[in-house]
Amino acid sequence: MKRALVLLTSLALAVPAYAFDWGEMLKGVVNPSSSQTAPSATGIDALSSTDINAALKEALTRGADAAVAQLGVKDGFLANPQLKIPLPKNLQKAEKAMRMFGMGQQADDLVLAMNRAAEAAVPEAKTLLVESVKQMTLEDAKGILTGGQTSATDFFRKKTETQLTERFLPIVKVTTDKVGLAQQYNRYAGMAAQFNLVDKSQANVEQYVTQQSLDRLYTLIGEKEAAIRANPLQAGSDLLKKVFSTVTGK
């Protein structure tokens, strides 16, 4: 009888305690306290619009300045195998024959003239690139910041390619017109382009060089931006470190 009483008493005491524990546990889930704070913003949402805009303008300006400074000097294109502008494809196909018939020097002269023309034209890009950065909207900035590795290149190409093409063409033409092979190429390639035998982008040497120059300029700007993304701590300014570190988590 005593054992039964002890057992009943234990159960009576245990049930309320058991119910109370679960009640407390569920209380925080079903009816959370209003005093709990919402999770803090992370990633790009934690950055102010001012910081995002300023950091992107700084990054793009730096990238543009560095790319122009690297390309717009003697041998800026020619001395770098990855940046050197080769003969147009149609001349590349004929190059072996040209060299066999003693025209190798003419081919070399044209390559030199094309790359000299490119390096002479590139400094024209700086003003337009900087202007496009100044006109960048917050929407543009967020798109570049969270976009892919070519987002800076895409932005600059969209904003400046048409105007830069117009500025580059006459500068390139002055240099390439001095080379006899360029004039010959323009005559034959121009005729071939009318019958769709030559890509329109290669219908004349100056157009070809202008497009090749711009492609390399935009690509180099994109590489400068990618370097900042990859290592924001080495970016150079506290603002760039803050913004790109937040986005990349580095």
Task: Offer a quick outline of the entry.
With 250 residues, the chain is mainly α. The protein has ten helices and no strands.
Number of DSSP helical runs: 10
Regions with pLDDT < 50 over 5+ consecutive residues?
1-42
Instruction: Supply the number of structural domains.
Output: 2
Summing up helix and strand content along with how strands pair, one would put the structural category as mainly alpha
Our measurement of the CA-to-CA distance between the termini, rounded to an integer number of angstroms, reads 71 Å
Helix content: over 70%
Order of helices and strands: HHHHHHHHHH
Average pLDDT metric? 78
Tell me the fraction of residues in β-strands, as a range: under 5%
Shape: elongated
* Estimated radius of gyration: 32 Å
Number of strands: 0
> What composes the largest sheet?
none
Textual characterization of the structure:
The chain is an all-alpha fold. The chain has two domains: 1-36; 49-248, no CATH class. It has ten helices and no strands. The protein has helices at residues 2-30, 49-71, 89-100, 104-121, 125-134, 138-146, 151-176, 180-194, 205-230, 238-248. Helix 2 (49-71) packs across helix 9 and helix 2 packs across helix 10 (238-248).
Outline the fold blueprint.
Blueprint: H1 2-30, H2 49-71, H3 89-100, H4 104-121, H5 125-134, H6 138-146, H7 151-176, H8 180-194, H9 205-230, H10 238-248
Helix pairs in contact: 2-5, 2-6, 2-9, 2-10, 4-7, 4-9, 5-7, 7-9
Throw out a few tags for this protein.
10 helices; elongated; 2 domains; mainly alpha; 250 residues
